[in-house]
Design a protein that fits this description.
Blueprint lengths: L1 H25 L6 E4 L3 E8 L11 H20 L6 H24 L2 E6 L1 H4 L6 H19 L19
Antiparallel strand pairs: 1-2, 2-3
Length: 165
């Protein structure tokens, strides 16, 4: 299962990089392109920081921290430390998103952002890799808050088939 998760992560990284290459070739230096009026537009932004523009100019530190998280997640995944499927897929999404943005930081010194929902939400511009990280982290939090340990907390049935209670 770990190899399937890593393959899925690899496919998502390729999708992320292809989208960013397209944005670099077609959107850099151009005005925004409206996709859904009032909701979604493509706006080219070079993010030299982290989420929401924090840690601007700290590419080296961000790269090292991201690499450490990715390597740790891959090692734990390959060691079989993650059992529930929801956790496996969550970790795979986090690995994919982190790797996509790490590639940008290492080879471009900035992350290519382009998804702009600011006409409606006044939200920072983000990218596909960010979506992977946010969805993966959200699924992991949902699992930890609502599902972890629920199986072990079920009441055992008595040997003769009677209900406990």
């Amino acid at each position: 299962m770990a190899l399937l998760i890593l393959m899925m992560s690899g496919v998502l990284v390729v999708i992320d990089q292809l989208l960013k290459i397209w944005m670099l070739d077609h959107l850099a230096g151009s005005p925004s392109i409206m996709i859904i009026p009032g909701l979604l537009q493509l706006t080219y932004v070079e993010n030299r920081g982290a989420a929401f523009g924090i840690f601007q100019g700290k590419v080296g530190i961000l790269s090292v921290l991201t690499l450490a998280v990715i390597i740790t997640a891959i090692i734990l995944l390959l060691m079989g430390k993650f059992k529930p499927k929801m956790v496996l897929w969550s970790v795979g999404l986090i690995i994919a998103g982190g790797t996509g943005n790490l590639i940008d930081r290492m080879f471009r010194t900035f992350v290519v952002d382009y998804l702009d929902i600011s006409p409606w939400f006044n939200f920072p511009v983000f990218n596909f890799a960010d979506c992977c990280v946010v969805i993966g982290t959200s699924l992991l939090l949902i699992y930890l808050l609502f599902f972890e340990g629920k199986e072990s907390k079920k009441l055992p049935e008595q040997a003769d088939g009677e209900e406990v209670g």
